[in-house]
Design a protein that fits this description.
This protein is mostly beta strands. The protein contains three helices and 62 strands.
Length: 841
């Protein structure tokens, strides 16, 4: 049987296991909880790691190792292209610091229920919620990791489980609950994702439905229906759409039994429904999913007394119907009438195999050949054998299970023989477990892959021809793999003839030990076979321990200020530096790298920021340095310059010496008579314009780079925080524009649409090598034109640029042309253009 999609557009309802509210009893339009994008800077939620460090740690571990993996786990959610939400490291923060803006706190405490590795709590802004509201704003999320990482649950940063646990908790913090689809948001028992492939389709659907891009819902479909037991709708039944290639997307039913599985990629699917498993140790609810509640805080508890079946009411997959899902449409009326039973017969299942290198791997990756797959779980085996009547089938054609299921008494688990044929594409394989009166599906039981996992046998420091530290990673199957030092991906410089790879070592502190891991594109990792063995590592031979100090940093509520950070023994790398101040009320606007030991930044403090100490964190590669409590948000606000400084001539963020910088302001006195200004210590003339602007002339002779702008009141009676602007080199100068015969374009010799012209320019690149020529931007009458050729013109940094006036270029006697690279843009050069020349017969 095959179900057809309806013509209705896909619904925007939320069927995934989100935190959900309902307006009242009998009103079952979900109001999901999520961060309000309008309250965030660039759709980004900052997260803060407690400055109260965990401990004791596993042997060889450090806080730096842990923070690197926390950052990598958070970044997993930034890779979802169909979601608009992003996460950013906000630095270390003192627990309990008042913050008015939304954010996520990562804290370390042993106040975690037994049986759990971590937990996450959410607080909601219920003052912004009313009956009929579209959603409930998340105000703050708190991720709690165990302080003692040695007992009762040993967990090291170099264990992939730590990474996956933190990625799981960040999913909770953003608004996702548990899923029963082997996703990263599944519980540890059934999750089938890896560090190399951390997100499953259900994870991607869940986060994309909460924070969709504009086109997301037009690219996916919906399956809808009801789940009943004895003719009555059941709440929080788990409904899953499962494709033969392993894609699984799920939903939970509403209190009336209705459901919608949204975010389903186009394709063919089986659909099955069943009860959530009962709560385990440390859990408060079935599958530890917090039930939906109404606006008064009363919950809608889950119904769990029924079996699991495929649509249209069978446990025989050969009799199950399939649904074909198309983008932007709904498959309606996929209804279930399930059978009562006390609880699910199988609570969960796990599958494991010994890999090529000997380690036991759960949800293993199996390459072509014959394998023994161990299966276990409550309801699958007993103390003396397999559950009576147990049958196991593979869903799809990616693997074959000969009829060879038997009980292995030593391991107290079942064993299957799995035959994996030659394949080209990695594919997830689901297992169907059936009993005489119930069934269970494990979507990511195992994966079939074309090749062995990567394997690391040695790590050795080397030095390149420029004296930079590099690392030679030896092993097998490393070609094409991504290499990580802790949570930091590194650049592969070369693949060597012996199968090793040479990578660039990111900056790190003296004596820092980074653990090395290889991740393959098919989801396998070099860690998965190690068991309890510590992975290979690399220790940095930096001779001195780094530290940082603040040379300038006046933080006032509502103001923008310069941070001037001085590093001693640091190795800050241009383009690899981030700064954070441990508060969601302080935004870093822009960073300027001066050298390995000095960084400038503009930061803006929210008007609602609470005065008090904040922590400064600066990160470059694997090097993280912090100053705790040495910066203060002050009480007084007397006005501020704002960071969005532009060139009066170009409207771009970069002003040359002699150019005019337009500096926006807020809260300054109406008259600045007697005030002075300096830019990089040189007096600068300025005028106050209308609309809270200062027009300042950049002093001649200043070098390109950051410029510190200081506005000084008479007798320093008013203190305005300094800020940083971008000073650029002198702009290019257009010498002439001529036709291909060499005649200059003028009113007596106008150009025509369709003509090819030659522009002569000097000072284009400000180099003797022509660096940056490929970034040349040519604009004619406001229309960007692509140069045909750019050729040297005999003199240093002088070029001839050939281009054609296309049909989109405007014509008229007062047109103009500019040329530039980046923010260095020439003055407008006049150009007389007529319509395309028409030849007469």
């Amino acid at each position: 049987m095959m179900l057809a999609a309806g013509l209705a557009a896909a619904s925007s309802a939320f069927g995934y296991a989100h935190w959900v509210f309902f307006g009242g009893r009998g009103s079952y339009t979900p109001m999901p909880a999520h961060f309000n994008l309008a309250s965030l800077n660039n759709n980004t939620v900052p997260y803060f790691v407690s400055d109260q460090a965990p401990g004791p740690l596993m042997p060889g571990d450090s806080v730096g190792n842990l923070v690197s993996q926390i950052q990598a786990a958070a970044n997993v959610w930034n890779t979802v292209s169909t979601s608009t939400i992003r996460l950013a490291f906000g630095g270390f923060s003192y627990v309990g610091t008042p913050q008015s803006a939304p954010g996520i706190d990562v804290v370390f405490s042993d106040d975690v229920p037994p049986g759990l590795l971590a937990q996450t709590s959410l607080s909601f802004n219920m003052n912004a919620v009313f009956a009929g509201a579209a959603s409930v704003p998340i105000q703050r999320s708190t991720i709690t990791l165990r302080r003692n990482l040695t007992t009762p649950y040993p967990l090291a940063s170099y264990d992939d489980l730590f990474f996956l646990v933190v990625a799981h908790e960040f999913g909770h913090a953003l608004g996702l609950q548990h899923a029963l689809t082997s996703a990263v948001m599944s519980t540890q028992y059934t999750s089938g994702t890896t560090k190399a492939a951390p997100l499953a389709p259900d994870d991607i659907a869940g986060i994309s439905l909460l924070y969709p891009t504009q086109s997301y819902l037009q690219t996916v479909g919906t399956i809808s229906g009801t789940v009943q037991v004895g003719g009555q709708g059941v709440n929080m039944a788990n409904v899953v759409a499962l494709s033969p290639n392993g894609t699984a997307v799920s939903a939970l039913t509403n209190p009336d039994g209705s459901y919608e599985i949204d975010g389903v990629p186009p394709g063919q699917y089986y659909i099955y429904a069943g009860a959530l498993p009962p709560q385990q140790q440390g859990e408060s609810y079935p599958d530890n999913i917090v039930p939906a509640q109404d606006l008064q805080g009363d919950q809608f508890p889950a119904n769990t007394g029924f079996d699991t079946e495929f649509y249209p009411g069978t446990r025989d997959i050969t009799q199950a119907a399939t649904a074909t899902v198309y983008a932007g449409t709904t498959v309606p009326r996929v209804n279930f009438n399930l059978q009562s039973r006390p609880a699910p017969a199988i609570l969960y299942a796990q599958a494991a195999a010994n890999s090529y290198y000997g380690g036991e791997v759960y949800s293993p990756s199996l390459y072509p050949g014959n394998w023994s797959l161990a299966i276990a779980g409550p309801g699958i085996t007993t103390s003396s054998g397999l559950a009576p009547g147990l049958k196991v089938q593979a869903i799809g054609q990616a693997a074959v299970l000969p009829n060879s299921l038997y009980y292995y008494s030593a391991g107290k688990d079942g064993v299957l023989t799995v035959n994996v044929p030659q394949i080209q594409t990695p594919t997830a394989v689901a297992l169907l477990f059936t009993l005489p009166n119930d069934m269970y599906v494990l979507p990511y039981a195992f994966f079939v892959v074309p090749d062995l996992p990567p394997w690391i046998t040695g790590v050795n420091a080397t030095t390149d021809s420029s004296g930079n530290t590099t690392v030679k990673v030896s092993g097998s199957n490393l070609s094409g793999a991504s290499i990580y030092l802790d949570g930091s991906p590194v650049q592969v410089l070369s693949t060597n003839s012996d199968g090793s790879v040479t990578v660039a070592a990111p900056p790190a502190s003296a004596g820092y030990t980074a653990y090395v891991e290889a991740l393959s594109a098919d989801g396998q990792t070099s860690w998965q076979d190690l068991g309890n063995t510590v992975p290979p590592s690399f220790t940095y031979p930096v001779p001195q321990s780094p530290s940082i100090t603040i040379n300038s940093g006046l933080l006032l509520p509502g103001a923008t200020a310069l941070l001037d950070i001085i590093g001693t023994g640091t190795s800050f790398v241009n383009g690899q530096v981030s700064i954070a101040l441990g508060s969601s009320d302080i935004t870093v606007n822009q960073i300027w790298w001066l050298n390995a030991g000095r960084i400038l930044a503009n930061v803006t403090v929210s008007p609602n920021a609470t005065p008090g100490p904040v922590d400064l964190t600066i990160t470059s590669g694997l090097q993280t340095e912090a100053l705790y409590g040495q910066l203060q948000v002050q009480q007084a606000f007397q006005g501020t310059m704002l960071p969005s400084i532009i060139n009066q001539a170009t409207g771009l963020a970069g002003v040359p010496p002699g150019g005019v910088a337009m500096i926006p302001t807020s809260g300054l006195p109406q008259s600045l008579a007697g005030w002075t200004m300096t830019i990089n210590g040189q007096p600068a003339n300025f005028q106050v314009g209308g609309g809270n602007w200062i027009a300042a002339t950049v002093p001649a002779g200043l070098l390109a780079g950051p410029g510190i702008v200081q506005l000084i009141s008479p007798n320093s009676s008013v203190v305005i925080p300094p800020i940083v602007m971008q000073i650029i080199g002198a702009p290019p100068q257009i010498v002439a524009v001529a036709n291909t015969s060499g005649l200059p374009i003028s009113s007596s010799n106008p150009a025509h649409i369709g003509d090819t012209l030659v522009l002569s320019v000097t000072g284009l690149t400000q180099s003797f090598t022509g660096a940056g020529l490929t970034n040349t931007q040519l604009v004619v009458g406001g229309t960007t034109v692509t140069p045909t050729t750019i050729s040297p013109n005999g003199l240093p940094d002088a070029y001839q640029i050939q281009f054609t006036l296309g049909p989109n270029v405007p014509f008229g006697p007062n047109q103009w042309v500019t040329v530039g690279i980046g923010a260095r843009v020439s003055a407008q050069f006049p150009l007389f253009i007529l319509p395309q020349f028409q030849q007469t017969q």
